[in-house]
Amino acid sequence: MLTEIGRGRLTVNLGAIIANWRLLGAMHPGQTAAAVMKADAYGLGAAAIGPALRDAGCRHFFVAHRQEGVALRQAIGPGPMIAVLNGFAPDDSDLVPVLNSLPDVNAWSGMGREAILHLDTGMARLGLDAAEQMILAGAPSLRQGIVLRFVMTHLCCADEPAHPLNEAQQERFAAACAPYPDVPRSLANSSGLFLGAGYATALARPGAALYGLNPTPGQPNPMQPVVTLEAPILQIRQVRTGESVGYGAAWTATRPSCIATVAAGYADGYLRALSGRGWAILAGRRVPLVGRVSMDLLTFDATDGPEPAPGEMITLMGKGVAPDDLGHVAGTIGYEMLTSLGARYDRAWVA
Ligand SMILES: *Cc1c(COP(=O)(O)O)cnc(C)c1O
């Protein structure tokens, strides 16, 4: 009889997210931490994480797109601020636009609505540039009828504490905020919170660290791990010395080998760049990924240790396989490992 083996399982630890949010909020006295929830809370499910953070006391949320904001509002209900980093045209939504240019300011002036003013201090993506900042500072009437909730900027190099741009941006931000003495400020992302007291503002905007990624690369991770990704073994096969495994015959056994074929692949966000580089945890042991990552299948060398059985779960991300570390060997960052997580996993959010 053929027993069907299920699919991968993604478990998100809400208690760990809340603990991380509290730790980040306590980094600087008098400062509040928002929760950055763009891209469906870094791939982990804004509809479940939003209400959990709201219940824990989080009053400020950031998303990238207006549609993300509308969905998050439905999930958390009225009350907390939901700001849209990419901005949007005036509408009747209960969302706060981030104003990224003088035309944005112009579009929202006279509306009597709350907004966040984004001043660019070096990222050169969004936000009023230096010339626009001068114009707005010299003509307060341009922002008449806009209730400024915060002025914000975004650090480019916060994950590199020694980078000179950190201090430069901090100084530029202080100067750029001078025309808005009564408006609270928002500066630090996850890593920015760890740069020292000079980076404290009224509202920090951590994202990655909430979800367990390390805001202090190269140092021990102060955050609690959040994500566990497991997938079932579909088959065990014995491979003889000299036989190859997978597409391109990219890996050849140099000894009689036990290969575990697992039900996940690049279509599930297990990046193909991990071919020949990844690893997983099987019954507490580290097993190397061998051969190429396929669309729906992965092959691991389970030769060392007791032979696993089909149906047994293998840990692709979690204890012993931090998303940051996998991202590093894949030539990317933990952020992308999380936002790439596919739609085919059974998802569970545990308290
Ligand atoms: C994504 C983002 C953040 C959060 O950054 P993390 O590094 O994930 O903490 C904060 N502010 C802005 C403007 C962002 O785009």
From TrEMBL:
Keyword Isomerase: yes
EC number per UniProt: 5.1.1.1
Pathway named in the protein's UniProt entry: Amino-acid biosynthesis; D-alanine biosynthesis; D-alanine from L-alanine: step 1/1
Source organism of the structure: Humitalea rosea
HAMAP family: Ala_racemase
Gene3D superfamilies attached to this UniProt entry: Alanine racemase, Lyase, Ornithine Decarboxylase, Chain A, domain 1
InterPro entries, A to Z: Ala_racemase, Ala_racemase/Decarboxylase_C, Ala_racemase_C, Ala_racemase_N, Ala_racemase_pyridoxalP-BS, PLP-binding_barrel
SUPFAM superfamilies, per database record: Alanine racemase C-terminal domain-like, PLP-binding barrel
Residue list for modification N6-(pyridoxal phosphate)lysine: 38
Annotated catalytic residues: 38 (proton acceptor), 247 (proton acceptor)
UniProt GO BP: D-alanine biosynthetic process
Keyword tags: Isomerase, Pyridoxal phosphate
Domain annotation Alanine racemase C-terminal: ranges: 226-350
Keyword presence, Isomerase: yes
Family, as annotated: Belongs to the alanine racemase family.
Name recorded for this polypeptide: Alanine racemase
GO CC, alphabetical: cytosol
Reaction catalysed by this enzyme: L-alanine = D-alanine
